[in-house]
Design goal:
Blueprint (H helix, E strand, L loop, with lengths): L9 H22 L8 H17 L23 E3 L9 E2 L2 H15 L5 E8 L2 E8 L2 E7 L5 E3 L2 H5 L17 E10 L1 H13 L8 H9 L4 H5 L3 E10 L8 H10 L9 E4 H15 L7 E8 L2 H7 L1 E2 L2 E2 L2 E5 L4 E13 L5 E12 L2 E7 L3 H7 L6 E5 L7 E5 L24 E3 L6 E3 L9 H9 L11 H9 L14 H5 L6 H13 L2 E2 L1 H7 L7 H11 L2 H6 L2 H6 L5 H12 L1 H12 L3 E2 L15 E5 L7 H10 L3 E3 L8 E4 L5 H9 L2 E3 L1 H10 L1
Parallel strand pairs: 2-13, 21-22, 23-24, 23-25, 25-26
Antiparallel strand pairs: 1-6, 3-9, 3-10, 4-5, 4-7, 7-8, 10-13, 11-12, 14-15, 14-17, 15-16, 17-18, 19-20
Helix pairs in contact: 1-2, 12-13, 16-17
The chain binds 2-(butylsulfanyl)adenosine.
Length: about 675
């Protein structure tokens, strides 16, 4: 025997075969059964081993090897494929009445009281045909005109949920043709579009278009990068007895390794059919893939054959469509809404259009960035989407239909509700009105926050009362709470005289507060309780805080540039300052102090006091240390910075010496204090 150096040994052949089977099993666990058993890294390692084996011994390669899933050499054109049996379309029903008529026709034809239907979602993807010979995937084709499609075998090999080799070795069909849908999951579509945009490429309009574009790539390596999925919904086999029912056929497909939709069901009669329609409709937006209806097929295959076909559609099946989730309409105007938190949302006023089952007249444009990215203009034709209960949104502009006179839309610089300045923080997508205390859109929210327990703590001023006070225009700003009289309060719905008096009293009581509560109560964006407390301690008085510029604020420990800016923007809005002045005039007050400069942790010095001081008591010394933002501790440790020793010091003095902590006498201490 002449030895060929490159001839793989039996052992290598077996290893390659074992790797293929293992990889396909894990592929199936991951993509079909959704329960992976190994990590991506483990899969990759096995995959690399197989690639290296096949590279070293090209005669080991085979068409059903998982290494084929990465794509192959680009084609110059797709070959045509004659379908063995035509790939048909389905007749459509939009109303329950049409489905009832379908069921009546079926029952009359098969002479049965009630018929079982195999029901499944109607996927919004593209139909493909997959041919297996002796269990190996040999040819995949698009539907084309129903008679002739395109040979996209290489591309379909890259779709991980399509088995390259079927799992049952015994009783394999000589020839099996499986039909089903290629589609893209919504989440995969979003991620793909994000990648496209990041790479400066065009985004796809919807998952269906993305799936179609990906499948019809001449370079299958491009297809391999696209997250395509497959669901099988029909099969035909040669040379063996046909299945009894559609469901049995689907179960066989599951058994030999195909993904079949888990939402499928066998339903009984017209009531079962209509209940299924409603059930899937309720789940529609939660499904990971887009569907445009459900399909009912007579479950018994002998009846299917008996019913046959009309022109290009089977008589035994019908698609029951859901209302389209997208429609095209015209933008009549763009308005800006101000939300409870001051967020500005551009909204498109639309030529009314029936979409997602309701008539839509407004659609959100989300925020400034989205508005500019989509470049929606008044007069544009736009694709509007309403899926389930979500707020209708403008998806895209039909640029080819744009009239010549349109202009880009700009968000206003001042709030359309109160006229305060509109600001947008760095790194934020949302522009906001800065008139937190005065803006009518934010009034209820601002009042509730102002009155809340941890802010001004006005007992009894809850949502029900605030709603009325705002709606009756009795209160426009928090300051006006303090001028309400008992008669006005007693006039509110469900407010007895006694509770009016009580509310009046708790409003009165809230006049006496603390600076930190007052700052927190203002509802400054990004200023929570903790920051309010830091500000109060650091500045000691409201006026000092009001005078602080952005730079000064940002120097306060724990206050970053974003918070500093929010504070400046808030106090920079004259309307807000006015309300603060009115609050003070209405008698809201608190104790003010010098303020204690807050220090970063590493700047804080820890003192321990011992013995009797001459010029002050120990408490006074403590106050002076704390006034500078430093700390006094009770015991000496390695972390103590200074021990201040007066006359007749105690054991703390000895401990300081033992630990090598600096000991100061009174004079040295006073000198040090000046420099700290
Ligand atoms: S059965 C003989 N089942 O709908 C009937 N089709 O109008 C063959 N489709 O292009 C189709 N989901 O791609 C069937 N569960 C489903 C389907 C489905 C989507 C598509 C199919 C075809 C079109 C027929």
């Amino acid at each position: 025997m002449t030895a060929r150096a490159a001839h793989p040994t039996r052992a290598l052949q077996e290893r390659a075969q074992a790797l293929r089977e293992t990889l396909e099993r894990h592929n199936r666990l991951y993509y079909v059964l959704d329960r992976p058993e190994i990590t991506d890294a483990e899969y990759d390692a096995l995959f690399r081993e197989l690639v290296e084996l096949e590279d070293a011994h090209p005669e080991l390669a085979s068409a059903d090897s998982p290494t084929q899933r990465v794509g192959a050499k680009a084609l110059t054109a797709f070959a045509s494929v004659q379908h063995r049996t035509p790939m048909l379309s389905l007749s459509n029903a939009f109303e329950a009445e049409e489905v009832r008529a379908f069921d009546r026709r079926i029952r009359a034809a098969v002479e049965s009281e009630a018929v079982d239907y195999a029901a499944e979602p109607k996927f919004d993807g593209l139909a493909v045909s997959l041919v297996y010979q002796n269990g190996i995937f040999v040819q995949g084709a698009t539907r084309g005109d129903g008679m002739t499609g395109e040979d996209v075998t290489q591309n379909l090999r890259t779709v991980h949920s399509i088995p390259l080799r079927l799992t049952t070795p015994s009783g394999r069909d000589d020839v099996l043709e499986v039909r089903g849908e290629v589609l893209m999951f919504k989440s995969d579509f979003d991620a793909l579009n994000a990648r496209q945009r990041a790479a400066g490429e065009k985004a796809f309009v919807n998952p269906r278009n993305a799936a179609a574009g990906s499948l019809r790539q001449l370079d299958s390596r491009v297809t391999a990068q696209r997250p395509l999925r497959f669901f099988a919904y029909a099969a035909e086999r040669a040379g063996r007895a046909p299945w009894g029912t559609h469901e049995e056929m689907l179960e066989h497909l599951v058994a030999i390794g195909f993904p079949v939709c888990a939402e499928r069901a066998v339903v009984h009669g017209i009531d079962g059919v209509l209940a299924y329609y409603a059930k899937i409709e309720a789940r529609r937006t939660k499904l990971p893939y887009a569907i445009d209806g459900v399909v009912y097929k007579v479950n018994r295959l002998d009846w299917q054959r008996q019913l046959g076909f009309v022109s290009r559609a089977p008589r035994f099946a019908i698609a029951h469509k859901y209302p389209a989730e997208e429609q095209v309409t015209e933008v009549l105007a763009i308005e800006v809404q101000v939300g409870r938190t001051g967020a500005l949302t551009p909204v498109a006023r639309l030529q009314p259009v029936f979409v997602g089952g309701v008539t839509v007249t407004n659609a959100t444009l989300h925020n400034e960035d989205e508005l500019h990215r989509k470049d929606v203009r008044v007069g544009d034709s736009v694709v509007v989407r309403r899926a389930g209960d979500v707020i209708p949104e403008v998806v895209s502009v039909r640029l080819e239909r744009r009239p010549p006179s349109t202009r880009p839309f700009k968000l206003p610089g001042s709030c359309p509700v109160c006229g305060s300045k509109v600001v947008r923080e760095a790194g934020e997508a949302i522009a906001r009105c800065s008139g937190g205390l005065v803006c009518a859109a934010q009034r209820k929210q601002a009042l509730l926050h102002f009155a809340s327990r941890r802010a001004m703590d006005i007992d009894g001023l809850g949502e029900r009362i605030v709603d009325q006070l705002v709606e009756l225009e009795l209160v426009r700003t928090p300051a006006e709470l303090y001028t309400l009289d008992e008669a006005q309060l007693a006039g509110l719905d469900r407010m007895a005289e006694k509770s009016a008096a009580k509310l009046k009293a708790s409003i009165g009581k809230s006049r006496q507060t603390t600076l930190e509560r007052f700052i927190y109560a203002l509802g400054i964006r990004n200023v929570g309780e903790r920051t309010a407390r830091d500000l109060a301690r650091h500045f000691g008085s409201l006026d000092r805080l009001l005078r602080a510029d952005e730079e000064t604020l940002a120097q306060v420990p724990d206050i970053g540039p974003i918070v500093a800016r929010s504070i400046c923007q808030f106090f920079g809005e004259p309307h807000n300052r006015q309300v603060i002045e009115t609050l003070r005039k209405a008698g809201v007050h608190w104790r003010e102090g010098e303020g204690t400069p807050l220090r970063a942790a590493e700047e804080v010095r820890t003192f321990v006091l011992t013995g009797t001081l001459e010029s002050m008591t120990r408490d006074q010394a403590r106050e002076r240390i704390e006034a500078k933002g430093h700390k006094v501790a009770g015991t000496v440790s390695k972390k103590t910075h200074y021990v201040v020793a007066g006359a007749e010091p105690g054991s703390k003095f000895e401990r300081a010496q033992a630990l090598g902590v600096t000991v100061l006498d009174e004079r040295a201490f006073l000198k040090l204090l000046e420099t700290l």
